[in-house]
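Take a look at this chain, tokens included, and explain the fold to me:
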Amino acid sequence: MAKLIRRLPIFLILKVGILSTFLFAIIWGFLITFDKDVLGMSSCKCPTHDYETISDTRKKALSNHRLCILVPFRERFEELMEFAPHMKEFLNNQHVDYKIVVVNQLDKYRFNRASLINAGFLETRSECDYVAMHDVDLLPLSNELVYAFPEEGQPLHLAAPHLHPIYHYKNYAGGILLMQSSDFEKLNGLSNKYWGWGREDDEFFVRMKKAKFTITRPGNLTTGYKSFRHVHDRRKRPRDYNRYFNQSEKTRRLDRETGVTTVKYAVDNVKELIIDGAPVTFINIYLECNVDATPWCLQLEDHEFYMKGLEEKNKLKDIKTEKT
């Protein structure tokens, strides 16, 4: 037999060996699958991977806290139809107790994200002990983005510059930012001076730094810039980046005058909606604007009327001055 094997070509011996190994593996796998006692698996006490065996961060997310997701909103129903069910599934998987609150701006002034968040906070303050300032067009995808209860003085910026699909500058604090409700009050919320799109989160970043808050962010997730999906269509919904009157000058520095304690608004009505199985509280509000203090709240088409009124006021002042 030994002589016969020596006479066989080496490649044939190798082929037979490989086929034998392959057949053995199939039989062994079949036995393991249908008879767990082969490896003593019937009595295996394997970890179940519930939250007790995951991470401290995940434990916090499951603890006795409630999150209010404050969504500043105007004419973004397509995005909302996707946002609400997505967040329901995402947060239910994390066992987060949450409430989605859409704050809808009905008035004709320019969009004011910060004032809408301030108003939404005041309307829901008694219901939640932490808040998420959340854009409706930014959907979290990575399971490592945990909507956990933040530590005191340590806001959690989930949409961090190294993860956000668009904004990558180091002082960026927009998109999705979580903090304790008491911390939001300590900062007096956000400035109400930012009409139009952008920069209110930059001012809020300065507020947090001045208060010596430590802004925490997720680590270098394996998903990187694909950690979120940004669903904004710039062609359908162009941003209002315009700066009118002396807006650039007046919004360049830290606002020490306005915030959640000074926001002016009126609630028109509150609707409780169900969007594809996701409960949403929809608050319709009218923001108020002190046109003399922030004339840039006006839409462009209203500027001419405002300027004429301003001229009339100045004429009356001059007449009064002459009489005195």
Notes: Confidence is low (pLDDT under 50) at residues 28-54. The two ends are 130 Å apart (CA to CA). Residues 38 and 189 are 63 Å apart (CA to CA). The first helix runs from residue 2 to 7.
